[in-house]
Amino acid sequence: MSTADTSAPDAETHAPQTRDTGAPQARDGRSDGRMPGLVPVTETLRTVERHTWDPAREAVAVPARDSGTDAADGPRRARWAFWRLLGSELGLTFRRPRNLVMLAVLASVPAVLGLALRAFGGDDRDGMGGFIQSVAGNSLMLTFVAFSFLVLLLMPVAVSVVAGDSVAGEAGGGTLRYLLAAPAGRTRLLAVKYLNAVVFAYAVTAVVALSALVTGLILFPAGPVTLLSGTTISMGEGLLRILIAVGYVGAGMAALAAVALALSTFTEVSIGAVAATLVLVVVCQVLRAFPELSAVTPYLLPTRFTNFDAVLRSPMDLSALRDGLLAFGAYIVLFCSIAWARFSGKDITS
Fold it and tell me: pTM (2 decimals)?
C-alpha cells in the first residue's frame, strides 16, 4: 500500500471537506467529470453513519423515564384507543342514512299498528275482539304486541344489515386493509365491530319499545295492566316489565348479530352475509312448523326470541327468561369464536 493511500483516510478524517456550488474538484485541482451538485458516495455513507441510532448515545440524550409510569401508561393508552375506535365506529353507524331509515321504519310500525287497533277497536267481525281489547284496555300492552310482530323478521333484518356489513363491507370497500395497518390489532377491531352491532341491536329494540309506548299512551288509556294470567299490576310495575322485555329482546338481537358477524368474515360482499343470516332465520322458523322436529326446535335461535312474553305472567316465568339468555349466550360465544378464528388468520387482500 502506498503512502498516499494510507494518509488519505486520515486526512479526510481530520480535515472537514468543503463544497461549493460548482463541479466537485479532485485533489490535484482538476474536475473529476461528475455532474454539478452530486454528492460523493463516501460522503453520503458517512452522513448516514453519522445519523445512525446509537442506544448508548440515545440513553444519554433522552432522560430515562420511570418504568412504572410507562407500565401504567401502556394499558391506559390501549383502553383509550379502543374506546376512541368504538366511538368512531358508532358515529359512522348512526350517521349512515341507511341505518337511520331502518330505525325510522321500525319506529313507524308500532304507530301504524296502534292506529289500526284504535280505528277497528269496536269491530269484532274478525273474531279479534279479545286481542284488540287487551291492547285497548291498557296502553302498555301495545309494546308487547309490537315486539310480537317485529321480533321475528323486521328487527332481525335491521340487525343483520349492520352486523353483516361490519367486516365484509370494509373488505368490499377496500378499507379493511388500511384499518389493519393501524396498530389496532385484529382481535380489538373485531371486538369493536361486534360491540357496535350490539349497541345498534339494543337501539333497534329501544326504538320499537319507545315508539309503541308513546303511541299506546296517546291512543289508549293508561292505568293498571292486566297480564296474560289475569292478574292486574300497577303501571309502574308494567313499565318495569317492559324494561325487562327490552333487555331480553336486545340480548336475542345481539346473538343474531354474532351470527351475522361470523358470516361477514367469510365473504367480501356484505349483501351475501346479510342474505345468509336472514335465510338462516327463515329456515329456522320453517323448521319450527314441523312437529316431527320438536326435538331440534329448542336449539334454534328464533325459538327463544318470543320468550319475552314470560314477563306477562304472574309470577314472572324466570325459567323461560333464563333458558333464553343461556341460549343467546351460547350463540354469542360460539359464533364470536368462529368469527375470531376466521378473521385472525384471514389473508386480507382488499
Answer: 0.76
